[in-house]
Design goal:
The protein is an alpha/beta fold. It has two domains: 4-148; 156-360, Glycogen Phosphorylase B (Rossmann fold), CATH 3.40.50. Helix content is 43%, strand content 18%. It has 15 helices and 14 strands. The chain has an eight-stranded mixed sheet with strand order 3-4-2-1-5-6-8-7, with helices on one face. Helix 7 (198-206) packs across helix 8 (222-229), helix 7 packs across helix 13 (334-343) and helix 12 packs antiparallel against helix 13. It is globular and about 70 Å long. It binds 2'-deoxy-thymidine-beta-L-rhamnose. Protein-arginine rhamnosyltransferase that catalyzes the transfer of a single rhamnose to elongation factor P (EF-P) on 'Lys-32', a modification required for EF-P-dependent rescue of polyproline stalled ribosomes. InterPro entries: EarP. Belongs to the glycosyltransferase 104 family.
């Protein structure tokens, strides 16, 4: 009998909530033989990360996952054996009552946002008492052995290494996006929120000695790119050249193709949570635009990650990387910080691969969830 899982996803903003839950749902099916229902309140967002999806269907099967529109009002159904409330999205009251009424109660987990902060390790796996005598466990993704780990498919790194060693496969993939690699150019992907530091940085790249090919998937940062280029609305396929910099707008592609884009580039600018993790699996230097939070709460998270990430860098490389990440997230002075980053590029490149290996040496998040369930079962028995 396959273990049944219900994953609830409420799309707050952007694509991170659905991106993470869709990735997890697929992996639980593909690698752990689970029967997964993914409840999503915004099917249009789901169709962005899964282009073959039907944004109108109340029920559909994608990659072995039963994807259900989260109905309002809720319609009664039998709860699964494991219930994941992603990012504290609040389960329907009637569903919680149905969980409490079951003879064998489900394991209820709140899958939290990713953070490298120290307190996460101490809170990971803790229960909280809920009405009806139920318990809800906090499950924190993270970068240390004390946390729930990171999402990483079993074959991911082998696929990535094979792809990066195969120039023809890279060229064919880029061609499928309408990209032809310019001789001698560094390839850079840009996925970010609106950012005041972009214009000066693009000017710097346009004056650089090495040509840069900047690939920008359709999204929020396009308005800044457009303003710097001084052109009208940019759409997928648009290409513009300014000095040493060529800018090309790409369509928003499915998640597996976005991975390949990250694997193809020498530098990836990523944002939020899921693209940030995927850039780490690419083994290439990255610049993270963290999701801005009220009262600047995101700065602590940025610092916490930098503390881990920079720990094994030389003081010079650590200071260059920190300055660039700070500037990018403050929305100013990235251009001033960039030459120091370029000066330590070989070290940053080697470090990106080492960091990837370090993180990949730990069990991935789906495996840890599955283990958590098994431990909980044996404890409850
Ligand atoms: O879209 P985001 O900004 O999501 C954010 C974060 O998750 C943040 O933590 C959360 O609080 C906020 O939403 C509400 O960035 P993120 O997390 O990188 O998610 C983007 C998803 O889109 C990711 O799964 C990768 C995917 N993607 C594609 O599938 N194709 C593409 O072409 C691109 C550029 C991204």
């Amino acid at each position: 009998m396959r273990v049944t899982w219900d994953i609830f996803c409420s799309v707050v903003d952007n694509y991170g909530d659905i991106g993470v839950t869709w990735r997890l749902a697929r992996q639980l099916v593909a690698e752990h033989e689970c029967a997964v229902r993914l409840w999503v309140d915004d099917l249009a967002a789901f169709a962005r990360v899964c282009p073959q999806a039907d944004a109108q269907a109340l029920v559909q099967w994608q990659a072995g996952v039963e994807v259900r529109h989260w109905p309002q009002p809720w319609q009664a159904c039998e709860p699964a054996a494991v219930v994941i409330e992603a990012f504290a999205c609040s389960l329907p009251g009637a569903y919680v009552e149905a969980m409490a009424a079951k003879a064998v109660r489900p394991l209820w987990l709140n899958l939290e946002y990713l953070s490298a902060e120290d307190w996460v390790g101490g809170c990971h796996g803790l229960p909280s008492l809920q009405p009806g005598g139920l318990q809800k466990f906090f499950f924190f993704p993270g970068f240390t052995a004390a946390t729930g780990g990171l999402l990483r498919e079993a074959a991911l790194l082998a696929e990535r290494c094979a792809f990066q060693a195969d120039a023809a496969a890279q060229a064919a993939f880029l061609a499928s996006l309408g990209v032809e690699r310019l001789a001698g150019a560094q390839l850079v992907s840009l996925f970010a929120y609106e950012n005041g530091a972009l214009a000066e940085w693009l000017s710097l790249l346009s004056e650089g000695a090495v040509p840069t090919q900047l690939l920008v998937p359709e999204g929020r940062v396009l308005a800044d790119v457009q303003a710097w280029l001084g052109v009208g609305p940019l759409q997928a396929g648009a290409q513009h050249r300014r000095g040493a910099l060529q800018v090309q707008v790409l369509p928003f592609v499915e998640q597996a193709a976005y991975d390949r884009l990250l694997w193809s580039c020498e530098l990836n600018l990523v944002r939020g949570e899921d693209s940030f993790v995927r850039a780490q699996w690419a083994g290439r230097p990255m610049l993270w635009h963290i999701y801005p939070q009220e009262e600047g709460a995101h700065w602590d998270k940025l610092e916490a990650f930098l503390a881990h990430y920079c720990a094994s860098l030389s003081p010079q490389a650590a200071s260059a990387l920190r300055a660039a990440w700070h500037a990018w997230n403050a929305g100013s002075a990235l251009a001033q910080a960039w030459p120091a980053v370029q000066a330590v590029w070989p070290e940053l490149l080697a470090h990106a691969e080492q960091w990837c290996e370090l993180q990949a040496a730990r069990p991935d998040l789906a495996r840890r969830l599955e283990q958590f369930y098994r431990n909980w079962l044996s404890y409850a028995a």
